[in-house]
Amino acid sequence: MAEIDYSPPGSSSVSEGRVAGMEFDKEAMRKTKPGLKRFALTFSVLLSFLLGLPFLFRSVEIYRSPVPFREIEELSAAVVSSPLHFPCKFRAIFFGFEGLTLTTEEVSILIQSQMRRLTENDALPGGSCSFGSTVSVTLYSDSECYHSGSIPDWNCESMSELIRHEELGNHDDESFDEKLQFLFNNGYSQRNLENVYTLIVSRRENEEKINSVIGKYRHGWTIGNFSVNGAAKKVAEIFVKVFVNGWKEESLIGAEFMPVGADGKTVFSFSLLNANPNDWTYDWDFQDIDDNILMPVTKGLKSLADIKIESQVLYHTPKSSFSRWDNKLGSYVYTKEDLPFFVNSNEWHLDTSVEAGGRSKILHFVVYVPSAMECPLQFRLPTGEISSANGFISPMWGGVVVWNPPNCLQARSRSRQKISPEDTRKIFEVFLAQIRNLFGMNSPLHYGDPSESLKMLTVERGFAQWELDILSRQHTYFNIRQSVTTLGSLSRLVQSLPRMIIKDEIGEQVKYSLEAAKLALSNASIGLHDSAAVHSRYARSFAEDAFYHPSMMSVSYFSFEHCFAVYSPFFLPVSLHVLLAVLKEWKRFKQEKNKYKAWKSKE
Question: What is the pTM of this model?
Fold first, then answer.
């Protein structure tokens, strides 16, 4: 008999639902696949921030023109490791050495050994001559010329005739120097030997004293009763002490030895100061002075500096120091102790130059006309003697000359007068000597050996050609060292500040400086003194212009960390929240995806 089911209706369906409910966990499973809409929306916000970063970096980007750092380092290393030396050419011409047993090559070796002996105690300084090349020797004996080295053929008879005329007294030193210059310039077929330093040695048995003369060009002559060794020693001494060192005691260039501005420009400012115009007033014809006296000087120094000339006349310009009356001399005197207080910076308004600009150098040359209360005014030397120049120099500043009017002890005249041409010439002869001293050229006052004499011919332009060569060599060396130092400082500065603005003009100036320095070194290596000096001046000028460019000093530079600290308060808070939201949505998406996988595995 069949069983009767007494359970309430629907009880079986409820049981099946409970079993199904026990198998599906809403916390760990889901039946539908999770969507990417929320994550895509959140990530799009982050993506917009990321796309904006290039525009942000572009807006704060610093423009930097490319600077050749490697070339600067290579040039600096080359200049520092090997000081600049010029290949100088020397030639000795011997007359009156008949019966000499030595050959010209042996005499050349003897001279070179003497030159090395004179320089063996001192390291060969930069900017001087290198003695690597041989000394050429010409020996005139028995009406024949014997040469050593690469000397071209030239007329020995003309030289012999010139020497014989000089022995008879037919030529004075000035005319003999000009004759030699004409002979050397026209007797050679090779133009590359025009910069040879030549010394003529004439042996005379009746000479008791050795007389040497240094000409205005690149030659000189010495006369005496020489032996072969004595002649070689004298030749080496003049070559080294005169043509190479220029009678300078110092051998190294440690500071700015020459009054030339960093831009290669120098201004000669000449001032005529009337201390008290109530006593007398003086003027000068400066245009005539400029044309006849100063113009040759500026032309001679054009390879070293671009020199400008200006002048002015000032009144009511008393000096700061006090002068004392000397009964023996019958004049007022000022001494060495008064020199630091002589220039009255409060009353002497000298810095009114219109030519000087930037880093140009100004040299002041002052003619001081004393008042009647201190006239005549003389400069007494420390030895007690009165200075014939009646003036003094101040290194890197200029010079002062005191000019006493001829009517010092007469009645005063308030009418305007002009300094006489003769007095003007004497004043500017003193100024030329001061210019020589300011540029580092000193003439020897006496020769060490009383049995010898040395004379140096004066030059209208103030500097002999061999002196200009010395200045050119030293100036070239100094300018190249300065340009390399400046470029090295600029390179280190630019590399230490990554956010420094480097304009195209600065990059071009650096390149021009490097090119000019390389040209200067190339010209120096073949002995072109003037060209090397000009290019070295350009190298230094471009390097200084680049280093002191206004754009480099107009902005305060800061590191990238500082830039991040400035902009982070504006972007970091929002960016952080957006990034956290993306991470949160990505985490939620992964969890929902795992739930869907769990449901799929149950099926």
Answer: 0.78
